[in-house]
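PROTEIN DESIGN WORKSHEET
SECTION A - STRUCTURE
LENGTH: 116
TOKENS:
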């Protein structure tokens, strides 16, 4: 179910808000107050923006990333966090879809007798 806040602002307004925070033109707390949204809503917008950028800019046919232009510290941290979350999610999917390996149960090794 969508909240009123999600319906109130379109993609363009959300994009402008996220970019204003990322480019440090506005502080997140002040922008949230101006827009009447909570910090968690702003984090959701940022998370969705990063997800969209990662998907849109993913090299076709490969996951290899190359060094790009220097990013502001906050954006680099958010991007790194998003990449780690996606990596963990894909690892989780791999673990869930992988069949458990069959292992042989070996009998216990005999304890060597001492000569006393």
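SECTION B - SEQUENCE
RESIDUE ASSIGNMENT:
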């Amino acid at each position: 179910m969508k909240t009123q806040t999600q319906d109130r602002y379109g993609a363009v307004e959300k994009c402008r808000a996220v970019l204003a925070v990322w480019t440090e033109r506005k502080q997140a707390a002040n922008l949230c107050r101006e827009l009447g949204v909570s910090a968690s809503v702003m984090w959701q917008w940022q998370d969705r923006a990063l997800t969209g950028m990662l998907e849109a800019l993913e090299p076709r046919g490969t996951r290899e990333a190359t060094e790009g232009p220097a990013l502001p510290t906050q954006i680099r941290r958010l991007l790194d966090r998003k990449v780690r979350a996606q990596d963990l999610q894909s690892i989780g999917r791999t673990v869930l879809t992988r069949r458990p390996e069959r292992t042989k149960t070996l009998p216990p090794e005999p304890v060597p007798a001492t000569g006393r």
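SECTION C - NOTES
The radius of gyration is 24 Å.
The chain is about 60% helix and 0% strand.
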